[in-house]
């Protein structure tokens, strides 16, 4: 937010922006979603950090994305969020054999 002072309610907070990407045309990823979650501060024009994800496209994922997309988190909440993504939503499909 160029040339604006950070409002008090957004100081020391981080916003999450979900961005879906397609890394592979491999049919094994047909039911998967992959991408990044950009981490921004109020004063940033662009993200200054990101978290990668790859997970099955299902109700759990859609509920998670809906709950956190565009949400503002404190530094402690952000660290917990990163752990949650790593534990639940950073998987790869097993290859066909």
SSE blueprint:
Blueprint: E1 13-21, E2 32-40, E3 49-56, H1 59-68, E4 72-74, H2 75-88
Antiparallel strand pairs: 1-2, 1-4, 2-3
Could you describe the 3D structure shown?
There is one protein chain. By secondary structure, this protein is α+β, with helices and mostly antiparallel strands. The protein has one domain (13-88). Helices cover 25% and strands 30% of the residues. The chain has helices spanning 59-68, 75-88; strands spanning 13-21, 32-40, 49-56, 72-74. It has a 4-stranded antiparallel β-sheet with strand order 3-2-1-4, with helices on one face. β2 and β3 form a beta hairpin. The termini are far apart.
What attributes does this structure have?
97 residues, alpha+beta, 4 strands, 25% helix, elongated
Assess the beta-strand content as a share of residues.
Answer: 25-35%
Helix content: 10-25%
Total count of strands: 4
Q: What would you report as the Rg, rounded to the nearest angstrom?
A: 15 Å
Name the average pLDDT: 90
Oligomer: single chain
| Number of helices, counting only DSSP H or I runs of 4 residues or more | 2
What's the gist of this structure?
With 97 residues, this protein is of the alpha+beta class. The chain has helices spanning 59-68, 75-88; strands at residues 13-21, 32-40, 49-56, 72-74.
